[in-house]
């Protein structure tokens, strides 16, 4: 069999698989290379198993609420090993589906570590192949350089493979991985401390969401050790100790390093192939995902643009349509919806209040309430919704929510924002009652006007 291909894809994660299949559908001869499991981070050690763990954690609250609805004898004990076995079976099943999709698409799979040799040549497993075009989709991996000793901590990869629940867990970091696993492990029964340098978690998200998330995490018993720099992590006879700049020490039986991720570029031979990296160590690409080297493109987390699975998939398909489908396509990274699977979950699309207000006057609409299901059972959890609206033309610039079903609701509203919906469009949409989502079309008056040239809202 010839070792010459129209396209060689390095990395069989969500983005790489999407690009390979789409290119093959356009008639290209495609080889995809994978050094680990087919399916990538999202399917094997990321989004999917994490959400399965989130579902498991949610039953604790469901049991409590059931008693408020008249159920008696509702109780249970979580067994981490049973969940781990079920999760492993599910990821094996999904990996099999991904492999079959490649086979059905006519994409050849080469298992092994790839290295670029220049001139379109790639070495993999003692074999040298050539691609008219090369696409790098190797994703990212947990970073360990934030503070000394952090390499001793487990990452999300190891946490998702645990067979025993840690009694005391220290989570280091304040991003979405940190807050998600802090919330999930607390729901499963661990004592959790979340340590981060900032005053609020989730830097980059709307401030009102960040503030309410911090309140909600504290209300669920998570200790927020915030606002202090961290000096180093050490192993002790009983577990771990994290020393902070103010001299305080946080101890735990287990530590999760959730300080961020780095692009997977090491060992690929990028320098020899003339592929430039940016200041963050990611592959530098243009709007068409083209690298600095002729014939080489890159998509997904290895480019450090918007590090989300659906974005990598969209970038992969756009590349394939442009390169092989004679249909030039670009991905719009400006209106990407995202979700944070905490308890309660967060979802957002578009501009935050702070970002929008720097561009001009904006009107802010809010709704803050106790959802019906929780209130009836005697719970105090709240839902918060926010619309950021252009003060000049009423276009909706941002949609933000923290509360039950936020990801499902905002996913649907992302269509409206992408289509350029105005506040008037929301106002003339009839509500579905009784639902939480109806609040998004029932906000009639802005609570404030902010931004340049702002005047008091009427």
Please tag this protein with its features.
FAD/NAD(P)-binding domain, Enolase-like, domain 1, 3 domains, alpha/beta, 458 residues, six-stranded antiparallel sheet, seven-stranded mixed sheet
Question: Could you characterize what this model shows?
Answer:
The protein folds into 3 domains: about 200 residues, FAD/NAD(P)-binding domain (3-Layer(bba) Sandwich); about 110 residues, FAD/NAD(P)-binding domain (3-Layer(bba) Sandwich), CATH 3.50.50.60; about 110 residues, FAD/NAD-linked reductase, C-terminal dimerisation domain (Enolase-like, domain 1, 2-Layer Sandwich), CATH 3.30.390.30. It is about 30% helix and about 25% strand. The longest helix is centred in the N-terminal third of the chain and has 26 residues. The chain is α/β, with parallel strands linked by helices. β11 and β12 form a beta hairpin. The strands form 5 sheets. Strands 1, 2, 3, 4, 5, 6 and 16 form a 7-stranded mixed sheet that branches. Strands 17-18-21-20-19-22 form a 6-stranded antiparallel sheet, sandwiched between helices. α1 packs parallel to α9 and α3 packs across α6. The chain has 13 helices and 22 strands.
Question: What's the short version?
Answer:
This protein folds into 3 domains: 4-142 and 262-324, 3-Layer(bba) Sandwich (FAD/NAD(P)-binding domain), CATH 3.50.50; 150-259, 3-Layer(bba) Sandwich (FAD/NAD(P)-binding domain); 344-450, Enolase-like, domain 1 (2-Layer Sandwich).
């Amino acid at each position: 069999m010839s070792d010459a291909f129209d396209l060689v894809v390095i990395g069989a994660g969500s983005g790489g698989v999407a690009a390979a299949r789409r290119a093959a559908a356009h008639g290209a001869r495609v080889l995809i290379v994978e050094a680990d499991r087919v399916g990538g981070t999202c399917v094997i050690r990321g989004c999917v198993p994490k959400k399965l763990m989130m579902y498991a954690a949610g039953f604790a609250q469901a049991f409590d609420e059931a008693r408020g609805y008249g159920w008696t004898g509702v109780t249970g004990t979580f067994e981490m090993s049973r969940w781990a076995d079920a999760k492993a079976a599910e990821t094996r099943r999904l990996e099999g589906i991904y492999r079959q999709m490649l086979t059905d698409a006519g994409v050849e799979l080469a298992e092994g570590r790839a290295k670029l040799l220049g001139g379109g040549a790639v070495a993999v497993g003692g074999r040298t192949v050539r691609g008219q075009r090369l696409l790098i989709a190797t994703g990212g991996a947990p970073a360990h350089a934030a503070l000394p000793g952090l390499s001793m901590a487990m990452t999300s990869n190891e946490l998702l493979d645990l067979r025993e629940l840690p009694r005391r867990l220290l989570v280091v970091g304040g991003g979405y991985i940190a807050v998600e696993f802090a919330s999930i492990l607390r729901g499963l029964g661990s004592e959790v401390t979340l340590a981060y340098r900032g005053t609020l978690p989730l830097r980059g998200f709307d401030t009102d969401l960040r503030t309410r998330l911090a309140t909600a995490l504290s209300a669920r018993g998570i200790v927020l050790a915030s606002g202090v720099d961290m000096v180093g992590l050490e192993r002790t006879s009983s577990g771990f100790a994290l020393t902070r700049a103010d001299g305080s020490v946080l101890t735990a039986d287990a530590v999760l390093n959730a300080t961020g991720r780095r692009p997977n570029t090491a060992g690929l031979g990028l320098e020899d192939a003339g592929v430039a990296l940016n200041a963050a160590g990611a592959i530098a690409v243009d709007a068409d995902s083209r690298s600095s080297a002729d014939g080489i493109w890159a998509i997904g987390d290895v480019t450090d643009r918007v590090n989300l699975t659906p974005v990598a998939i969209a970038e992969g398909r756009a590349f394939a349509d442009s390169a092989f489908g004679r249909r030039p396509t670009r991905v719009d990274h400006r209106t990407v919806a995202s979700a944070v699977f905490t308890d309660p979950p967060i979802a957002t699309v578009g501009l935050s209040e702070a970002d929008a207000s720097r561009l001009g006057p904006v009107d802010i609409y809010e709704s803050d309430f106790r959802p019906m299901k929780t209130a009836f059972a005697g719970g105090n959890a709240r839902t918060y919704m926010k619309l950021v609206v252009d003060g000049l033309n009423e276009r909706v610039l941002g949609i933000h929510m923290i509360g039950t079903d936020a990801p499902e609701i905002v996913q649907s509203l992302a269509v409206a924002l992408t289509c350029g919906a105005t506040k008037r469009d929301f106002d003339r949409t009839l509500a579905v009652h009784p639902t939480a989502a109806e609040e998004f079309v029932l906000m009639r008056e802005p609570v404030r006007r902010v931004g340049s040239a702002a005047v008091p809202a009427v």
